[in-house]
Amino acid sequence: MEGQGNTEGQESVGAQGDTGHRGGHQRDEAMEDIGDTRGTRGHGTRGHRGDVHPAPCPPQGTFLVTQAVARALVAAGTGGSIVHVGSIVAKVGNVGQANYAASKAGVEGLTRSCAKELARFGVRCNAVLPGFIVTPMTQKVPPKVLAKFAGLVPMGRLGDPEEVADVCAFLASGDSGYVTGASVEVTGGLFI
User: Fold this and answer.
1) In this predicted model, what pLDDT tens digit does every residue of 124-179 receive, in sequence order?
2) DSSP label at 158?
3) How far is it, in rounded angstroms, from Cα 121 to Cα 79?
4) Which residues, including other chains, have CB under 8 Å from residue 182's CB and lie 6 or more apart?
5) Is 111 exposed, middle or buried (0-12, 13-18, 19+ CB in 10 A)?
6) What is the pLDDT of residues 35-68, one digit of tens each?
7) Candidates 100, 122, 149, 166; catalytic one
8) CA distance linking residue 27 with residue 180, whole number of Å
């Protein structure tokens, strides 16, 4: 474990792991299913050389980082929290975004599976599902379109990145010590 710090009253801990190293028995046991890149029954995708890769949902990067962090947290024996950031599109879909929706739905499945597998080690895993949030990407969207998006949100506006970060901080903190496997929507009421 490294990178301990304190930001505005919230303690944070960064974990570093090696996705290629298999350490002690307990760590391997905890990651038995997460570490099996073939999936639970040998299903997966085969690369051009015939090697097996994780299925495309959840995204491989999310899977590998989760695997490394989970191994580090289990090895440390201190418990902890893993917070994934997905999207509300995982639950509702969106025209022209089938690949994105499938990917984000995979993040939710990964979250729930990790929550079940890692709870016995005191590791919680949750997901945050932002809706329309003001980001550099939305700065490229015409104001008229942004106004239409805001009109769909019961709170009448797009969310701020800090509002998503606040939910992530809560889920990472001890204040959410009995929350695991949850997907928290940060959408201003979109789709309720």
Assistant:
1) 999 999 999 999 988 899 999 999 999 999 999 999 999 999 999 999 999 999 99
2) P
3) 6
4) 126, 127, 171
5) buried
6) 443 333 333 434 445 554 444 445 788 999 999 9
7) 100
8) 20
User: Rounded CA gap, 82 and 115, in Å?
Assistant: 9
Q: What is d(CA 64, CA 77) in angstroms, rounded to the nearest whole number?
A: 20
Interatomic CA distance for residues 80 and 78, integer angstroms: 7
Reply yes or no on whether 100 is catalytic: yes
Q: Where are the chain's structural domains?
A: 2-186
3-state secondary structure of 102: helix
Contact call for residues 94 and 149 (beta carbons, < 8 A): no
Q: 2-186 has which CATH code? A: 3.40.50.720
As a whole number of angstroms, the distance between CA 192 and CA 183 comes to: 15
| pTM of the predicted structure, to 2 decimals | 0.72
Contacts of 151 by beta carbon, 8 Å cutoff, 6+ apart: none
Q: What residue type is assigned to position 28 of the chain?
A: D
Radius of gyration of the chain (CA): 18
Q: CA end-to-end span of the chain, whole Å?
A: 40
